[in-house]
Amino acid sequence: MSKAYLEITLQVSEQNRSQAGEVYAKFKQPFLDTVSGSKSKELLVREADVQVLHGFNTTACAENYLKSALFQNDIVRALTPYLIAEPEIRIYEAQ
Length: 95
Description:
Layout: E1 3-10, H1 17-34, E2 38-45, E3 50-56, H2 59-67, H3 69-79, E4 88-94
Antiparallel strand pairs: 1-3, 1-4, 2-3
């Protein structure tokens, strides 16, 4: 069975990291409860940036999530004020 990961790298200033973390916390459970094929969601904080790593059953599930109302209307809107650059979005397939 293959798995997929969606990695979103966010450039967030240090003074706004706690607010970005609050957005992550607010939407973690709705993501796990409502997004088809979702398996996990982790926040990775590095000195240079913040990454959100999402686990899915398939790459199709990850692609569909990026088009979902939860992502487009809720999460993107909530994060936008804290971003200093466009997010980097990558989807990986694990065998």
